[in-house]
Specification:
The chain has 153 residues and is α+β, with helices and mostly antiparallel strands. The chain contains two helices and nine strands, in the order αβββββββββα. It has one domain. It is 29% helix and 32% strand. Strands 4-3-2-1-9-8-7-6-5 form a nine-stranded antiparallel β-sheet, with helices on one face. Strand 2 and strand 3 form a beta hairpin. The longest helix is centred in the first third of the chain and has 40 residues.
């Protein structure tokens, strides 16, 4: 009986250590998978072409290392009619939240209900009303996301 009690004293800490190790390994692998999704999105442009002139989502990291996503509404006769930052969160390797809307990633598309966002470019493309902006400006603190008329010349 004494030996059984002695074995339990050894077994319990080993089992607890084993469980903690598994939890840590699982969490690290989930973080890596989430990082992989961000690396896939970073410095790319995605399009939702279900609207009149289309909407684009531009994913990038600014000069301070913040993950950003700019939503641009394209217009007729002008490059954009509206531009704003949207909140993004990588939920897991296959799910992305954009402004509280959950998108599932499959076959180079993100789907949420009837909304589908497809990859448009392997580079970030941000516009003002009359043309494309230099990303070094967009990534800087000088950039004003809501001022679509500013040219940064």
């Amino acid at each position: 009986m004494k030996e059984l009690v002695k074995n339990k004293r050894v077994i319990y800490p080993v089992v607890i250590l084993f469980i903690v190790t598994i939890i840590i390994v699982l969490r690290l692998s989930i973080n890596k998978a989430e990082e992989d999704l961000w690396n896939y999105l970073n410095d790319t442009t995605w399009i939702d072409d279900s609207t009149f002139a289309g909407d684009t989502y531009v994913f990038y990291e600014d000069n301070e290392g913040l993950r950003r996503c700019i939503h641009q509404v394209h217009g007729s006769g002008v490059d954009i009619i509206e531009r704003e930052y949207v909140e993004i969160e990588v939920i897991n390797p296959d799910k992305l939240k954009i402004n509280d809307e959950l998108y599932e990633h499959k076959n180079d598309e993100f789907k949420s209900g009837d909304n589908v966002i497809r990859k448009f470019s392997d580079e970030p493309i941000v516009y003002n009303r009359i043309g494309r902006l230099d990303m070094s400006i967009v990534k800087s603190s000088e950039f004003e996301v809501d001022n679509i008329d500013k040219s940064y010349d």
